[in-house]
Amino acid sequence: MFPTIKLLNDQEILRIDQGSRALLMEIGTHVPNEEALEIFEKAGARVDSKSQMVRIPDHVINDTLSKCSSCVRLYDRTGGPPLLIGGDRVYFGTVGIATNVLDFETDEYRQVVCDDLRDIIRLSDVLNPPDFVLVPATPTDVPSNVVDNIETKLLLTNTKKHFIAEAQSGKNSKKNIEMAAEVAGSLEALQERPFFSTLVCLTSPLVLRDDSIELIVESSRLGLPLFIESGPMCGGTSPATLASTLIMANAELLSSFVLAKSINPAVPLIYASWARILDMKAATVSHGGPEFSLLRIGTTQMAKYYGLPSGGGGILADTKSIDVQLGMEKLGTGLLPALAETNMVVGMGLIADENAISLETLVIDHEVTNWIKRAMRGIEVTDETTDLSVFKEVGSGGDFVQTKHTRDNFRKEMFIPKIMDRGFLALDKDPRAKTMRKRARKYFGEVMEKYTPPELPEDIDKKLDEIIYK
Amino acid sequence: METEEYLNRVIDAVVRMDKKDLADLVSKGIAQGIDPLLIVNEGLTLGLRKVGVLFADEAIFLPELVLAGQMVTEVMESLKPQLSGDKNYKKKGLFLIATVKGDVHEIGKNLVALLLSASGYEVVDLGKSVPAETILEKVNELSPQILGLSALLSTTMPAQREVIQTLEEAGVREKVKIIVGGAPVTRDWAREIGADGYAEDASTAVDDADRLMGLS
Questions:
Q1: Residues A56, A77: one domain?
Q2: Chain B residue with minimal CA distance to A410?
């Protein structure tokens, strides 16, 4: 069996579900967009056009859920099999929208430029995990009205993995789609094997922002996958109990799902969340504490209750340094969601809360996620793994290092670290010579030396620029 | 095939740990009249040295290092008939090895023994938790060139010193070179107890043995 973790029992899940349904019907969601109001009304919601409040009855939610798929297929550009998002599969990805970078050379924080985004996408392309690349940062050296499209171009030119793009408006989302279609060969080819999804961040409490609506509308119409995240802050934009924060996160996701599925029942949707706490000491959001992991397990359990593919933040850290706190936060917020079988855990490469990317951190997160993946495989007990013949071969008092059985099995059974230091304590040398950070830097150099990024034909590259600046 | 190219292929087969390819290559080489001593010294030994470097660089792992050692030992065994006719061929020396009294850890010691014999030493392994008196007896009986003493525990490290003292008291210390090793053992410790050499790991044990034999 594989180790798994659950927090909520059936009755508790039902309470969260009922709470969310009550919010959506009794309080309602603010929807400042005429087109969306019409869509909601047609779907059976009660719409007050004056206050732009939408109240969604139970049967509309049930209807929406009946249109959802339990598994979303996310393709890449290598032509290989898609990532199957749903059930017990767990994938890890980057995340970002950070505007700072911890510079690899100077070890100082500074603003992100396009080259930084390119570098971290390339490192994401070469390491596994990340299994997919959510746009890891926002460059500050380009015009802000097209920065999202420039990010998409950098993703298209530097990775063949599935990526999740951001867009600040329906117009720019259209451009993203047009660029991806250009690379795919046609819109139909992109729809057949969508190699990118669009990120939608919802706003708490109970608001469907105009720009979020536009993104949902654009992708839904074309049946392109949406990675929709709710992120209420416990004690800030949601009540100060974790249970109520789950009710809020869930309600917001359900309302966005109603909108998307009313536009096109075929649109693939991923139920993701960043439900988190407001740190009352620092007066800022925290992603590295135990509550973050608890909330992720909670939102994941809600997704599973509805039979939906799940995702959300994890492998995150509030620390500003590559230090002990980083290791503690990354493992804690990575391992627990993974054990809850959150299908898409996003957070690799991020440091300083949500504010900075770091190449070293991404290498460390690669180690952390592989550590987690091994833990998730548990102990396999089968006829093969309990075969007594090797005991007989070695007998009493011998060693197993020299057996073929060891050679055949050690790679399968053991996690082989890339950058953890496990050597013995050699006091005649510097015992701290191989710190994880030093080894991460060395490993970075090794993997990037052998790496060649995917390149696009020159004419397509040109067309992408035309689309961005038209 | 030129001899140099042939030897490179032998080295490559050891590094790839391709047992079948190595066996084929060696028998083909012998059939073609290539000097078996050359195969050993310029092929197998160099290949094994490369494997040791790969292990130190963490490019291959312990079971693979052991496999390479086993493969080369087996090939050397198979070459014995040819080599014994060669008057220039002799083992590099006799290496007596033991884990010291009170210590039952011998995986590391076994590995050292394996790599030493794969590198051309005649190795006599006395086993684990071997008392100083037994080691003295064997030194007198076999007259080895080198004695290797292994200890995994910091609590059994003093037993390495006891062996050296026992040999001194018996007046035979000067007859044999002594290399100490094991996880907690340091170069400083080796110097402090009057050992001649220090082995950080299995590969450097071979290097240090060669150094003491004046072979490197």
A1: no
A2: B63
In a domain, A201, yes or no: yes
**Domain check: are A49 and A87 in the same one?**
no
Which CATH number does the domain housing residue A138 bear? 3.20.20.480
Which residues in A lie closer than 8 A to residue B154 (C-beta atoms)? none
Burial of B102 (0-12, 13-18, 19+ CB in 10 A): middle
**Which residue on chain A is closest to B188 by alpha carbon?**
A428
Percent above pLDDT 70 for chain B: 99
Residues A90 and A56 in one domain: no
| B106–A401 C-beta distance less than 8 A | no
Q: Which residues of B touch A399 (CB under 8 A)?
A: 106-107, 110
Is A402–B114 a contact, with Cβ atoms under 8 angstroms apart?
A: yes
- Name the domain boundary from A46, A64, A82: A64
How far is Cα A137 from Cα A355, in angstroms, rounded to an integer? 9
Same domain, yes or no: A172 and A268: yes
Closest alpha carbon within chain B to A418: B58
Residue A467 lies in a domain: no
| A315-324, B53-62, B120-129: least confident range | B53-62
Closest CA–CA distance from residue A351 to any residue of chain B (Å) = 29
Q: Average pLDDT in the B121-127 region?
A: 94
What is the average pLDDT value for chain B, to the nearest integer?
92
Q: Do B110 and A401 touch (CB under 8 A)?
A: yes
DSSP A321-354: SSSHHHHHHHHHHHHHHHHTT-SEEEEETEETTT
Residue ranges of the domains in chain B?
A: 3-84, 94-212
Note whether B107 contacts A401, CB cutoff 8 Å: yes
B107 neighbourhood in chain A, CB within 8 Å: 399, 401
DSSP state letter for B85: T
Q: Which residue in chain A has the smallest CA separation from B198? A: A428
Inter-chain contacts counted by CB atoms under 8 A, chains A and B = 33
Nearest to A120 by CA among A66, A82, A158: A158
Number of domains present in the structure of chain A: 2
pLDDT, one tens digit per residue, over B138-153 is: 999 999 999 999 999 8
Residues A28 and A157 in one domain: no
- Residue A27 and residue A130 in one domain: no
Contact check, Cβ <8 Å, A401/B62? yes
> Do A296 and A322 have their domain in common?
yes
| CB contact at 8 A, A265 and A39 | no
Residue A402 confidence (pLDDT): 86
Buried b (16+ CB within 10 A) or exposed e, A282-309: eeebbbbbebbbbbbbbbbbbbbbbebb
Write down the pLDDT at residue A379: 96
Of A401, A426, A427, Cβ closest to residue B63: A401
Q: Is A400 exposed, middle or buried (0-12, 13-18, 19+ CB in 10 A)?
A: middle
CATH of domain B3-84: 1.10.1240.10
A273 and A226 in a single domain? The answer is yes
Mean pLDDT by 10 residues, chain A (470 residues): 94 98 97 97 97 98 98 96 97 93 96 97 98 97 97 97 98 98 98 98 95 98 98 96 98 98 98 97 94 98 98 97 97 98 98 95 98 97 96 90 93 95 79 88 96 93 96
Q: Which residues of B touch A411 (CB under 8 A)?
A: 61
Reported confidence tier of residue B1, pLDDT bands at 50, 70, 90: low
Partners of A312 in the β-ladder: A273, A345
Q: Please give the CATH topology (third level) of the domain spanning B94-212.
A: Rossmann fold (3.40.50)
Q: Which domain, by its residues, includes A32? A: 10-64
- Considering only CB atoms, which chain B residues are within 8 Å of A425? 183-184
